[in-house]
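R.M. (postdoc): so does anyone remember the format we settled on? I'll just put the structure tokens first.
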């Protein structure tokens, strides 16, 4: 079936620089988690969204969809769970771990990862371009795991103040994404980050200690963290 073309730029939503802001509506007004439709992924739009606990999540053929789910899936420093077997993997240095060494490669690999139950990827070409620009501006960060010099696992997200918003991860070897995530999480927590927003529940992140909390609690914590 042929897909309809994605709508072009909406003149009602000008591209915003990183110091400009867009007045998103209060996420608490949304019962289904969808806060807005349309716009773009310019730095100012993305920062406006994350500052209010909102993130973009949509398919290639859709307009930009802005979400703030309730409940919210969050990892706190004291809840990070590293299993005994995972501790051995980390302690033995099975993977070479790094931070911000190759953000473009990480986000591209995340976009190409096979995800059971999903038809295609939500990490569009526009998203890759936008978040790579956010990395250039210093807002986005990636954690990487390499094996024999090859990138085999990674994750990326956005940091604002004492909050980190995890976006996606990928793994080409067993435990690679976990190793990259744990390494990044430890660095973030040691640097004063109060929580990692994991957005919506996954078994993978639940095994690492993330848990659901009411959106109202999340938004209150976020205001304090900025």
């Amino acid at each position: 079936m042929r897909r309809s073309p994605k709508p072009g730029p909406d003149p009602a939503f000008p591209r915003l620089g990183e110091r400009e802001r867009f007045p998103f509506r209060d996420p608490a007004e949304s019962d289904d988690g969808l806060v807005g439709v349309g716009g773009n992924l310019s730095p100012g739009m993305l920062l406006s969204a994350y500052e209010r606990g909102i993130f973009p999540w949509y398919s290639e053929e859709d307009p930009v969809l802005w979400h703030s789910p309730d409940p919210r899936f969050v990892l706190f420093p004291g809840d990070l769970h590293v299993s005994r077997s995972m501790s051995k993997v980390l302690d033995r240095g099975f993977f070479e771990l790094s931070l911000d060494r190759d953000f473009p490669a990480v986000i591209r690999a995340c976009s190409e990862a096979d995800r059971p139950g999903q038809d295609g990827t939500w990490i569009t070409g526009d998203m890759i371009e936008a978040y790579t620009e956010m990395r250039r501006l210093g807002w986005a960060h990636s954690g990487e795991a390499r094996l024999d010099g090859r990138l085999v696992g990674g994750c990326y997200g956005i940091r604002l103040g004492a909050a980190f918003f995890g976006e996606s991860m990928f793994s080409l070897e067993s435990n690679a994404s976990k190793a990259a995530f744990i390494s990044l999480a430890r660095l973030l927590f040691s640097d004063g980050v109060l929580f990692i927003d994991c957005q919506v529940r996954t078994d993978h992140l639940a095994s690492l200690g993330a848990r659901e909390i009411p959106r109202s609690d999340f938004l209150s914590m976020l205001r304090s963290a900025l």
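R.M.: ...and that's the designed sequence above, right after the tokens. Also worth knowing: The first helix runs from residue 43 to 51. The beta strands are 34-37, 55-56, 65-67, 72-75, 96-99, 140-147, 150-160, 163-171, 195-199, 211-213.
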